[in-house]
Amino acid sequence: MKALLHEIKECTICKEHLVLGPRPVVSAHPESKIVIIGQAPGTKVHASGIPWDDASGRQLRKWLNVTDEEFYDEKKFAIIPMGFCYPGKGKTGDLPPRPECAPQWHKPLFDELKNVELVILIGMYAQKYYLGKAAKKTLTETVDNFQEYLPKYLPLPHPSPRNRFWLTKNPWFEVEVLPVLREQVRKMLRH
């Protein structure tokens, strides 16, 4: 695992497409129990090199009901984005994750992760990649039908402050999904 993480952090396969240059951000340990698959680092995470080190990360930790110490304990959480580097700015936010990363690195990472009990799929890119045809037409439908994907996967919307409108429009998320997410996470962190 150590050698693989080093290789990922040295990766430059899409450097010509990255405005800020390559700086792969990933965190994992062979004993990780929960894998969080998000989109790609933003500018703050690119600068710090620490996954989810921004407002979205603070919101995600609230959703999970975990402390920073728990979240950044690699034996508890592996953090594997769909794109490992900041993809650049688009018209309405960051560009999509670079398409080279997941096919290149996800399988080798999962081959090293022997204790995974839950994979949290954050956002449409992770959900389409991992759920394939089982994903619904929209992110909202996929998240609303989260029970179908348990116990292996749990789909979530992105915890970005930009998603306030989605959260307001879908109050069932906090009532139905978050309690199950927190219960699953707590159960896995206990043993």
TrEMBL record:
Lineage: Bacteria, Pseudomonadati, Bacteroidota, Flavobacteriia, Flavobacteriales
Pfam families in the record: UDG
Residue span, Uracil-DNA glycosylase-like domain: 25-182
InterPro entries, per the entry: HI_0220.2 (IPR047124), Uracil-DNA_glycosylase-like (IPR005122), Uracil-DNA_glycosylase-like_sf (IPR036895)
Protein name: IclR family transcriptional regulator
Listed SMART domains: UDG, UreE_C
Organism: Algibacter marinivivus
